[in-house]
Write a structure and sequence with these properties.
The structure is a homotrimer.
Chain A lengths: L1 E10 L5 E4 L1 H11 L4 E6 L5 E7 L3 H14 L14 H10 L2 E7 L2 E2 L5 E7 L5 E10 L1
Antiparallel strand pairs in A: 1-8, 2-7, 3-5, 3-8, 4-7, 5-6
Chain lengths: 136, 136, 136
Amino acid sequence: MKIFNNSFTVSTNKRCDMVDITGKVEKALADSGISDGEVIIYCPHTTAAITINENADPDVVHDILLTLSELVPQNRDGYKHSEGNSDAHVKSSIVGCSETVIITGGQMQLGTWQGIYFCEFDGPRKRTVNVRITGQ
Amino acid sequence: MKIFNNSFTVSTNKRCDMVDITGKVEKALADSGISDGEVIIYCPHTTAAITINENADPDVVHDILLTLSELVPQNRDGYKHSEGNSDAHVKSSIVGCSETVIITGGQMQLGTWQGIYFCEFDGPRKRTVNVRITGQ
Amino acid sequence: MKIFNNSFTVSTNKRCDMVDITGKVEKALADSGISDGEVIIYCPHTTAAITINENADPDVVHDILLTLSELVPQNRDGYKHSEGNSDAHVKSSIVGCSETVIITGGQMQLGTWQGIYFCEFDGPRKRTVNVRITGQ
């Protein structure tokens, strides 16, 4: 069994943003030479997340970010954390900091409309994504 | 180390639905012959999800779907996506498109009340679930 | 490839609580002798969850629990489940019952501010967490 590690940076452009990182994960998979296994896409930040959703119509990303911001406003009576980014921490735990995708025949088994997104909730910033590919 | 792949279809009956797929995953596990490892249950759709929750009282499923629909209504001022299913995409990212379960002694280590659910947010449809079992 | 299993208990002190279990997972990792692989932290309960978020300022935990409780109140018109803990089941599916962390050089690759939390949504109770470490 082989293990392959990769990290790359993502530059986000707004306070809340979703950046399609599918191509970067595919590049890591090609570099790994692994054809059958799984890939973990991991976000080491507490005000960001990883999700998988539609990458055909950019309006979907808009609507996801809009809804999350209406559910979890930046300012809320009762927030104690003094950095003004409590909402970003909450969104991180709701969306989750990693995804796992199955690899078969050297390809990620994403659905037809699925792409992998880095979700920024407290940007703009330069962020890191860790990728771990395991398999044979 | 062995790798075993399985896919099955799920027919959903309503726009929002949760279908218990525990038995289908257990069947795949039995077919795999793997006794110690892990199973990834993966949804390749962007308007559906996978979750683990109580499978004893069906009212729990009702209350989960009710709450998600109140938090993420089908129509919201500001949605841009023109297919009328923005809510389904949002719910997919909130619930998440996969779960991983530990296998020991040929059994999934689910808790007493835990079942694995396919969550439909834009049905009714015929859907696919991919299962990857890795171990020995 | 080695597989190492561990379980430990967590005592929660309030109805809704987040307990930092990073040290317990690190202890399991040290006991495993595995230096390169991954760890699955799994909650076998349907009214609790596992998340990764900031462990420096305890106000972050306060704000996460506050927001979840405002989004998913304990009592809601329409809840059918008769145990009075429908909110806890919903929160469990929103936050998710497991996390996976990459291991390199015998260390979990958590970000600088990341800790692993057991999330209690229907306590206080004595709970179990299952840990599975796979690697070499």
